[in-house]
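Many introductory courses stop at the sequence. We go one step further.
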Amino acid sequence: MALNAVEQVTEQVAADDFEALEDKVYRTIERYKASRQAQAAAERDAQRVRQQLEERDEQLVALRREAVQLRKEREEIRGRVEKMLEQIESIAEERAS
């Protein structure tokens, strides 16, 4: 009888150990799944940020081109205004003479 009781206790401990191990394995699987989902979400976010950065870079290039063009136009207009002012001064000098 005592031997039978010891075997039952040993079997019960082994079964408890197996259940604990099984629980740990399932928790590990769930953590793995959660980490894979988090990684996939992070990769999607990173891709979105890269795309936004690329769009911002394109906007920056376009704005730089526009700034250069506006500076050229400003210089051209400045030259034209200076030419008109010279003509006005010349007319004013002729009248003064």
